[in-house]
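Listing S7. Sequence submitted for prediction.
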Amino acid sequence: QVQFVESGGGLVQPWGSLRLSCTASGFIFGIAALKWYRQAPGKEREFVARIDGTGRKTNYADSVKGRFTISRDNAKKMIFLKMNSLKPEETAVYYCKDDEYETWGQGTQVTVDS
């Protein structure tokens, strides 16, 4: 059974930083490309970042380039999202996912507010 469990969210001030984590199970983690998505209140879910199975190739939404870093630890079956210089409009629930599967986790809430 494919599962994703996100953690690390919380309340952070504008221009602050957070590091999100995602633990995955139920599929062959080491070859899977994985993504972070986010959904802000009243908005569509949107792509944030992607990392390939080796961890060598990454892609980012234009809005987060230079501020967010996606990484992975295949031994622990985890991916991470380090977020710097957070903006209030980035308040959202953040999710990790393998697009080969329909499954979504519960997400982790990130609130950027002074």
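Caption to Listing S7: primary sequence and predicted structure tokens for the chain studied. Strands lie at 3-7, 10-12, 18-25, 34-39, 46-51, 58-60, 68-73, 78-83, 92-97, 108-112. The radius of gyration is 13 Å.
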